[in-house]
Design brief:
There is one protein chain. By secondary structure, the chain is an alpha+beta fold. Helices cover 23% and strands 29% of the residues. It is built from 4 helices and 13 strands. The strands form 3 sheets. Strands 5, 7, 8, 9, 10, 11 and 12 form a 7-stranded antiparallel sheet that branches. Strand 7 and strand 8 form a beta hairpin. Helix 1 packs antiparallel against helix 2. The radius of gyration is 45 Å and the shape is elongated.
Length: 197
Amino acid sequence: MKTALAIYLALTMMLPGCAAAGPDREQAEEIAAQAADQQVPAVQEEDPAPQSVPQPLEDGAGTAPAGTKETPAETEDPKEKEMKLTIGDTPVAVRWQDNESVKALEELVKEGPLTVQMSMYGGFEQVGSIGQKLPRNDAQTTTEAGDIVLYSGDQIVVFYGSNSWAYTRLGRVEDKTAEEMKELLGNGDVTITISIE
């Protein structure tokens, strides 16, 4: 139908310019009308070339071109690395203080584990040099078994008893009782290791 209409329009436009050489206007209109009545099969348009359809990603969070395979992005463990304390061969859970001394200690052990040779002192603590000065904010403190403090800016002290002195608090062992701390620290000098894991 579209083709017949196109023929009719083309003939109508051509006739005025060629009236002398061809049939008159009425004959042209009659020919065009006959062409319009005929069933002219419509020309089918060819399908466009198939295009790639975006495919959903495996996690459904976007699209990827067909024929490509995306692997899920590697995700880092959201859990941050923490500073750990081991007394002899026994790892202990520590709740570290949020202060400048602990931050400086953490920076120190990021370079590698810090091993400190401790010595028993006073029947209530083990003390050892960390080999350099850390920032300090000493305050009069009464300690308990499990407390970890900085003394004189360059010595770490772990208590298995109680004492009162000017210290900077570093942390506290949370998974050991006073009796268990005495078993770990009260039977001779020990070595402690602080590391980041």
